[in-house]
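3.2 Worked example (two chains)
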Amino acid sequence: MILIEIPQIKHTNANNFFLLSGPCAIEGEEMALRIAEKVVAITDKLQIPYIFKGSFKKANRSRIDSFSGIGDEKALKILRKVSETFHVPTVTDIHETSDAEKAAEYVDVLQIPAFLVRQTDLVVAAAKTGKVVNLKKGQFMSPASMKHAVQKVKDAGNEKAWITDRGTMFGYQDMIVDFRGIPEMRQFAPTILDVTHSLQQPNQTTGVTGGRPDMIETIARAGIVNNVDGLFIETHFDPANAKSDGANMLHLNNLEQLLSNLVAIRKTINQFNS
């Protein structure tokens, strides 16, 4: 089982997809715990292996006045509290080599942002912590090219690499998901579909990224049908007022129905794969 080495992961025998989900950024302790509590209850009910996601800081910002975080150590301690409170693993993204060792003290999975996945020093620093390294496919990269990012992790002595597809640029202000890439990337590493970021509409003249949350279920269903190992879905109880990526996040109230539908599809697909 691909999640076997992650502490506290549950439901690994359910033959389900796994889920990375939570807010885009850690805005505070109360909001993180509130979201985690809800998602843990849903995933326990549906027998979905779950990893809580929250960025301890946001470095890839369009404008200098965009929210970037509440303080590194403060946010990382909140991620640890989520893990200890709900007995689930956690994932956060890193942006500099110095982030790797620091974040690895608090979380179970280190995520390399799509814009930075070609940065060898960053990937190697993450790999050397011994944590699972989740490599986001660059919006400008082909699926085949991700084998080199995976190989960097392995060459650094770490076999625990994942790939996450978060869409490919289609013009200046839109992205598409090329589902032909899913089976290709699964040859290199377990592959996750980042549903919500694939629906971003970047490079808006306002400097605030747009999105199409109305298409979340469409993209997620297609991912499950095409055998993705996991899904990445950012969620918030108040997306309109979230401090980062609110335009493409799923409202927390809609998560259970979405996941219920996807689990049903997965059960059907499993019959074809058996």
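3.2.1 Second chain
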Amino acid sequence: MTPGILLKILSTLAFTAMAVGVRVAAPRIPLAEIVFFRSIVALVLLFLWLVWTGGFPRHLTTRRPLGHLGRGLTGAAGMFANFGSLTLLPLADATAYFYASPIFVTLIAARGLRENVHVIRWLAVLIGFGGVLAMLTEHVGLGHLAKNIGAQGLGAGVALAGAAFAAVSIIQTRRLTASEHTAAIVFYFTCLTTLAGAAALILAHFAPSLIASQAFVTPDARDLAALIGAGLMGGCAQIFVTTSYRYADASLLASYDYFAMVWAVIASVVFFGQWPSTPVMFGAAAIAGSGLLALLGERAFAGRVTIRSIFQTISNFMPNAGRPDR
């Protein structure tokens, strides 16, 4: 279980670094081009990783092509929505909305994967989501929304749609890990998102009346560095997160998604000069606490800690009043 949690936390850090690259490039580079660059760079990274580990091409064999297709389609939709929200919202806001996905993951895992989603997991996810809501009050309170209902409303809707697509993709990833190699899962997903980005760019070129805003833009050195960095970090994050589901249930790892909010706050300060307020700091503490609660709760339900053992521990520190002398 511990390797799964560590890999999940590393994936949130890498995904946040990817988001920084996307946000840097977003003002000048169209969404389809960002998706294409992020995917093609990650695909090259994955290929090099496979060659280095000796897994090419044997680790790419699959017995579930339709499963990969479903995972790829939902993952691609989630990627487009996530990147789209980054163009409409500040980094911390977009991350907060997108990481409503653990709620969806826990719900779907309980129904679709028939995982034993006990009360502590639900409580950890809800506490983490409460931390996200606390962070949002600084930027998307009622007064702020009244002034910016267009961009903020669209951005929130796109981000929440991305969260739902991402949750379905995560559940499908969990299913695929039962029979497929990590490299195959990441490879076919990345191939599909590369094709999706390329298809949108081609459509914009030959049918500009449909999606003229997605026409290819030659990136300058700064944008190119941001796009390559986003691709490298996105590729690493996909490897980390896919591997994590081999070691722990999707519903357990869901609460650790909220660590991305902590990294997003740090990135906002370092790269964009946005200092966190008291609600943001409170939310970050709640997010970190939700991960700790999930870990402790898992140990309790695994039998390592029981109600009886807790009372036994407490009784050891109580006075011996009422007990016969020995």
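3.3 Remarks
The chain has one domain: 2-316.
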